[in-house]
Amino acid sequence: MATTKDLKHSTSDLKEKDDIEKTESVSSDHEDVNYDPAFVKRTLRRVDLRMLPLLGLLYAVALIDRTNLGIARIAGMELDLRLDIGERYSIASMIYFIPYTLLQIPGNLVLRRLGARNFMTICVVGWGASQLGMAFVPTWGYLSLCRVFLGVFEAGFFPSLVFIITTWYQRYEVQQRLAIFYLSSIIITSFSSIFAYGLTFLRGRGGLAGWAWIFLIEGLITIVLGILAYLYVPDFPDKSKFLTEEERKMILGRVQQDRGDSLPDKATGRKVWLHLRDPIVWAHSIMFMATGVPAYAVGFFITIILAGMGYSTSEALLLTAPPGLVAGISCYCFARLADRTRKRAVWLATQNVITIVGLAIAAYAKPHPVRYFGLFLTNMGATGCVPGVLAYSANNITSHSKRAVQTGLIIGMGGVAGIIATTAFRQKDFPRYVTGMWVAMGLQFTMLFLLAVLSYVYARRNRLRREGKVGPLEGQENFFYTI
């Protein structure tokens, strides 16, 4: 906890002391308590059903709204807004990620002040309005402006979502939950191109082009879901209302036993700066950036790559679905392996290798079906690494303040991945985008190196702690790093 000199007012001092007392109370009330397995299982199922489907749906909508530019492009927007001139498409795609990257950590820091429901509703309704506005843009400049607002409102959503999910579960339960919500979003987004293709048949209605109807309908759907988020999204465990008091205490007690941070600590400027100076926080963030580049490349360019293979517009849109479905299945299987074996790095490295192979095939194979198979492998590897890195990082930290900073920085670096993907895949490299493929492959090798370094560091720290040569890791007596 922060010392008194870190706080400006006596009321803050009292609140921080109260936080300490509440944390100690949870620890003493639940330490070494064995909960009824049936009660735990039933309660966790309630939490899962309340949280994961809706959050997965909201994240699916976020992915669709940020990447449907590629679908709209081949549906006629390229000619109407002249996105084929220079790097206009890359600029319109990339500019979204500037506010998206810069506003990650500030969003997480205000999340608890506003509450999960209020904060997420503002985010979802805001980006839905931005998406809807794209239906009426007359030039690519206005399109880019709408993309800026889309980035502003989406910035706080994903890190907040991950932050909230990781506060409800123990460390070796979290990757499967992240994979389930991510899996549901991948399955939904896999069919988004088919849905968008159907919307293009509304062209001419209301004087709008077919691509404009994509933004109009999907924007309206997002706004409606934002209202549902206010009604149903659960808050943090200590603020939850849908559980009984007994269930809530059990959830907090299990988290306290597992990593000792069931209740929030005070997020001071000194703490934020301290967490930002931790090189391991940056290592996890760079890993997320590395896996984000091929993931975004597939999201933004798969329909364009397929069209470059000679497939028609309708065929390119329809063929985007199968790689996403296979990637969803692979993502969940690797998540189950990771949670059951309580290992993270080895499974992440395996998926890095799959991604590298897929990118090489997509870049250099001659037959189009083989290149298409490469897109399957790329999507499988990159998709599985997204929840994998989030779980890996979440497993190896304690305290809400550090979780807020690390989650915000990680997702912020995911925004940097979007900038890299949308600029490395250049129009002049169409249709194979070899330069972009090599940038993505180089980042996979970077991630493999960081996984090796972190595995060594974590194993050494665990050994020294077991030998009694260092004090408690992450400030928790029985805490050990997950390798």
UniProtKB/TrEMBL annotation:
UniProt keyword Transmembrane present: yes
InterPro entries cross-referenced by the UniProt entry: MFS, MFS_dom, MFS_trans_sf
GO annotation, cellular component aspect: membrane
Natural source organism: Cyclocybe aegerita
Membrane-spanning segments: 51-69, 89-111, 118-142, 148-168, 180-199, 211-233, 280-311, 317-338, 345-365, 371-392, 404-425, 437-459
Membrane topology value: Multi-pass membrane protein
Places the protein is found: Membrane
Domain Major facilitator superfamily (MFS) profile: 54-463
Name of the protein in its database record: Major facilitator superfamily (MFS) profile domain-containing protein
Pfam families in the record: MFS_1 (PF07690)
Phylogenetic placement of the source organism: Eukaryota, Fungi, Dikarya, Basidiomycota, Agaricomycotina
Keywords: Membrane, Transmembrane, Transmembrane helix, Transport
Region Disordered, residue ranges: 1-29
Predominant localisation class: membrane
Any one GO molecular-function label of the UniProt entry: transmembrane transporter activity
